[in-house]
Every structure is written in C-alpha cells, then in structure tokens.
Design goal:
The chain is an alpha+beta fold. Helices cover 28% and strands 27% of the residues. It binds flavin-adenine dinucleotide (FAD). Flavin-adenine dinucleotide binds next to helix 1, strand 2 and helix 7.
Length: 504
C-alpha cells in the first residue's frame, strides 16, 4: 500500500480499512476525490474468517464497478439464501447473480484492498485516529503517532465500537445481547460432530475453513483448520476469550472438546442490536458497523456496510467537488437508515426463531418453514436478505423509481453492452429507449452520460415481477433509478438538479 505522510490534508479521511472503508475509498477515488484511509492494522491481514460471503445485491454493486469477477473467481456459489437457517431458493431471481457467493471476509478485504491500491488511495497504517475536532470548514483528525490530518469530511468506518461515533456524541440506541457465541479457528485431535447442531443449549457448529460447493451441497476439505462455533451458557463475559473458554463451552455442549488445540483465532459475537441515531453530524459521517450492529445470522452486516459506502461515495464526491450542496448528504441517512433498521429487525426475528428449542419453538420454526416454502413469502424474504428489494422513497410513479436498475443487455451506437458497464466509472447515466436524440443534456454533459439504447427483452424486478418498459430512465452512480419518463422530459430537470446539481 502506498504511504503518503508528507501530505497532511485530504478532501476526505476515512477511518478504518475494513470492507466499508475500502469500498468507500474506491468510490471516492473513482470520482477523482483526494481520499485517504487511516487504519490501525499494520496490513490487510485479518485474523479469523468473520463474514462468510456476499449476497446478490453486493455482487451487483461490485459488478457495477467492473470488479465482481475478482470475487466470483475466488468464491463458491450456492443458489440458496436463508432466514433463520431456513433455506430460500433464489435461483429464479431476475439478476445475473441469483446466488450467494461463499467467500471469507479476509479474501473479500484482500480483493477490495487490491482495487483501492490500483486507484492509488493512500492508507496510513499502524496508527489509530484518537480524536477529531470539526469547525465550519474542516475537520482536524488526531492520530496516535502524534501527527494530524485535516479533511473537509471525516467518515467513521471504524466498526461497531466506533470511536468516531462516540466522539461525535451520536447516540447508539438498541438492545443488549441475549445470546453469546464463541467462534474460533483451531485444530482438533479427534473427529468432531461435523455440521450444525441446534439444541436446548443454542446453536453450535464444526466445519472446515476450506470447502467446496458441489451440486448445491457444502463439501468440507478433509484437512486444514477447523472453524468452531459454540453458544456460551453464561452470556455477559466481556474479556478476550481464551482456548480454555472455548474448551469449556464445547464440553458443556458436546461433552468433549475433541482435543482442541493450536488456535489461530478465537473471538466472540453476540446478538447485540444497535443503530446510530444519526449517520451524519455536520462534517462527520458513519458507515458500516460503525452505524449498525446486529447478530450475524443471515450474513448481512458486511453486505449492508459495502452498500452504505456505495450510497455515500458519489454523494460525498459531488459535495466535495462543489457540484451539489451539502444537504445531499442528508439523503444518505434518509435512504440508508431505514435499510439497516430493517436488517436489525430481521436479525432479531431470526435470533428469536433460533433461540429456544422445545416443542413449541419447533412448531413455530416448522410453521415458518411452511410459510417460506410458499412462493410469495419465499421471494419477499429472500429479496430482503439479498437486498435486491431495496426501495428508496423518492416519489410515487413507475415501480423502477428508487429501485435498482436491472443489468439489461442494451444495443447502442457502440454495439452491445450491459447497463452495469455504463456504471463502471461511477457516473450517472440517462438511458433513452425512445427516438435517438430525444434529450438534450448539454447543461449536465460534464456529469451525466446520455446513451440512446434499444432493449428488446422483458422488464422484470425481484418480487414485483414484470413492469412496463420505460421510455427513459435516469440512473444514479449507485445503480438506483432517480427518474423515469419519456421524451417530454417532464420532471427530468428537477431530478437532475436534485441528484446531480444545478446546470452548468
Ligand atoms: C462471526 C461473524 C460472522 C459474520 N458473518 C457475516 C456474513 O456472513 N455476512 C456479512 O455480511 N457480515 C457478516 N458479519 C459481519 C461483518 O464481519 C461486519 O459487518 C463487517 O466486518 C463490517 O465491516 P466494517 O468495515 O464496517 O467494519 P470492520 O470490519 O469492523 O472494520 C473496521 C476497521 O476499522 C479499524 N479501526 C477501528 N478503529 C480505528 C481507529 N480508531 N483508527 C484506525 N482504524 C480503526 C479496524 O482495525 C478495522 O480494520 C459477521 C461477523 C461476525 C463476527
């Protein structure tokens, strides 16, 4: 990674090079903004595996930047998402990525860091942000090595215990944990009970870190580190968990610890559920786990953070460049807070469904399984978990408004191309399916691409199904549709000003 210590000012300083901070840095760099990251870790190495993969909408947003293949080539696909571990088939979803990509977080971070490095984003490593002070014009950022940085905006992507959130005085209301699990990567001397165990003591699992998916089934390698997860019988411990804690927790559940030894990582996660009351305090913003924490069930935390970053990146870039007023940043909270609030709600529901094991709880789970076996509920829940159903509240109108633009195969003057290819540079695009030359975008030509295109296939949205073909759509850099209309252009100028600033 490039270091750049001589320069102490940047337009944007991001705290934390986790998945959220890396994605945001990439988005800002693509928009030509001077951005730097401060990261406590000395390298991108991540102890342990944490998140297990990417859902459809995250793969789509990576595809919108032309980097999805980097992840797909290293992961394992499965056409099944889950709600409280009830499988949900998503193979019929209208997306090129109708699957979950199994890929451990350390690989996701490594690939994202490689992209950010190509975009020449400086990362100040091995030091922490220890405080900041903001005034009307800038933010002074204090580092643990005694240096300081100045930025126009500071973004806390510094995880669930976010110093930035606390120092900004942003409330983090929510719910205390009710369950606690130990997780680790270890070696065993005996063969364990492989797979998931759900019993009166909680949820536990033994698996191998390395696996393949064959015919929809996970096949673990027969050697290599073992990933263990076990519910603690007495939640509430706060210290760093030890091998002894893990051993005792296993014995309490399995009656043996299977000769556990040589751990490379031991950690603890809970179902603590909290969300920042505000994602912005003047020149300071929060994204990812810094803004929301919840139980990992459903695998949505990293995914939500990456998508926060893609929502915020282009807006912050436009504000920094003076294209848009800083009120555009308020739409970040307005759009993303409700999305994470829904994730919090669904993870709490999943924990409740998994938390108790007796005949009544089993009846409830069976009832949910029956319900989610029906087509409509399956599609709704799977679209929620995969984030394909996100609907930002812009205004009434065509069903595409505020929803993700599908990655259609277009025919253009430059030949055949996919919608997502047009978004690789993170620039907005007005797609005209009507008569060529029907729009004049001259006052926004420096910011918005105008593409005359033909599309002959069906228009289909997840859950909603077929929608009428629009004559023209305005697509934001994050891939959400900001305006739908025709060559009369009614409402287009307003949408352009709202999202991409006043005419030049
Ligand atoms: C067991 C487990 C399983 C999970 N499974 C999934 C899953 O399958 N799918 C999913 O989507 N999510 C999952 N998650 C959640 C996922 O790991 C997190 O949501 C994700 O890491 C959040 O990314 P982030 O970049 O917002 O924060 P983090 O990954 O926490 O990154 C924050 C970064 O900031 C740095 N930092 C912190 N403070 C400072 C400071 N003051 N100065 C400088 N640097 C600082 C840290 O070193 C770190 O690199 C799981 C989590 C756990 C624990």
């Amino acid at each position: 990674m490039r270091e750049m210590l001589s320069k102490t000012g940047h337009a944007v300083v991001i705290v934390g090079a986790g998945p959220t901070g890396l994605m945001l840095a990439g988005e800002l760099a693509l928009a030509g903004v001077d951005v730097a990251i401060v990261e406590r870790r000395a390298s991108q190495e991540l102890a342990g595996s944490r998140a297990g993969g990417l859902h459809s909408r995250s793969i789509e947003v990576l595809d919108q930047r032309g980097i999805a293949d980097r992840f797909l080539s290293q992961g394992q696909v499965s056409q099944v998402a889950g709600f409280a571990w009830i499988p949900l088939d998503i193979s019929d979803f209208p997306t090129r990525h109708a699957y979950v990509l199994g890929l451990w977080q350390n690989h996701i971070e490594r690939i994202l860091a490689g992209w950010v490095d190509e975009l020449a984003v400086p990362i100040y490593r091995s030091r922490e942000v220890i405080g900041f002070a903001q005034d009307d014009d800038s933010v002074g950022v204090a580092l643990s090595d005694g240096q300081s940085l100045r930025a126009e905006y500071l973004v806390g992507c510094d995880g669930g215990r976010s110093l930035i959130r606390k120092a900004a005085g942003i409330e983090f209301p929510g719910w205390e944990p009710t369950t606690s699990n130990l997780i680790g990567e270890v070696e065993l001397t005996e063969n364990p009970e492989w797979g998931l165990r759900h019993d009166g003591k909680g949820i536990h699992a033994f698996s191998r870190v390395e696996y393949e998916i064959c015919d929809g089934k996970v096949v673990y390698m027969d050697r290599g580190p073992v990933r263990v997860m076990v519910t603690e019988q007495h939640p509430g411990a706060t210290g760093e968990p030890t091998l002894r804690d893990l051993s005792e927790a296993l014995i309490a559940v399995y009656g043996t610890d299977y000769g556990i030894h040589s751990p490379t990582w031991i950690s603890r996660f809970t179902d603590m559920t909290r969300q920042a009351a505000a994602y912005r305090d003047k020149r300071v913003l929060l994204a990812g786990d810094a803004a929301h924490v919840h139980a990992p069930v459903g695998g949505q935390g990293l995914n939500t953070g990456v998508q926060d970053a893609v929502n915020l990146g282009w807006k912050l870039a436009q504000v920094v460049k003076g294209i848009s007023p800083d009120s555009l940043l308020d739409t970040y909270h307005a759009e993303r807070h409700p999305v994470a609030a829904r994730v919090l709600r669904n993870t709490m529901a999943q924990v409740a469904l998994l938390g108790r094991v007796d005949e009544r709880a089993k009846a409830l789970r069976d009832t949910m399984s029956e319900l989610l076996g029906m087509d409509e509920p399956r599609r709704r829940f799977a679209a929620m978990i995969t984030a394909l159903d996100i609907h930002y509240d812009f205004s009434e109108g065509h069903p595409l408004l505020g929803r993700r633009m599908p990655d259609l195969d277009l025919i253009t003057d430059d030949g055949r191309l996919r919608v997502f290819t047009l978004l690789h540079d993170a620039r907005p695009v007005l797609l005209n399916f009507g008569e060529p030359g029907g729009f004049d975008l001259t006052p926004w030509a420096d910011r918005v691409q105008l593409v005359d295109a033909k599309y002959v296939g069906a228009w289909e949205l997840p859950v909603i199904g077929a929608v009428t073909a629009p004559a023209a759509v305005l697509i934001r850099p994050d891939g959400y549709v900001a305006w739908v209309g025709d060559k009369s252009g009614q409402g287009l100028a307003d949408a352009l000003i709202t999202w991409f600033g006043a005419p030049a």
